[in-house]
Amino acid sequence: MDDLERWCRVTVFGPDGGVLSDQVLQGRGAPDLGAVDEIARQTLRATRIEGRIAISDVSPEMEELLELAGLGVEVKRQAELGEESLGIQERQEETHLRDLPP
After folding, report:
1. What is the number of other CB atoms lying within 10 angstroms of the CB of residue 99?
2. Are 72 and 63 spatial neighbours (Cβ–Cβ below 8 Å)?
3. In this predicted model, what pLDDT tens digit does every residue of 46-64 receive, in sequence order?
4. CA Rg, the chain, in Å?
5. How many CB atoms are closer than 10 A to CB 35?
């Protein structure tokens, strides 16, 4: 497995905070949208069980792709123990004037 570049580490936590999986995303060359898709899928799976994911050791290229895909803006949250958490549960809801009671 030579010539593999490490893009990031993805850790999935269950609802109780226990680690369900921990893996390194890597591949030949720079990350592509397939890597972003994998992170998005893991985020969705974790959310469905009321868990969360955290990424760490993020390469600059992967961070840029996450930002371009909109994941950096929507799901990146406060770090825990040096990790970049991708927990949707911390997202704040936007309020619009039409949502307010008359």
Report:
1. 8
2. yes
3. 999 999 989 888 999 999 9
4. 15
5. 21
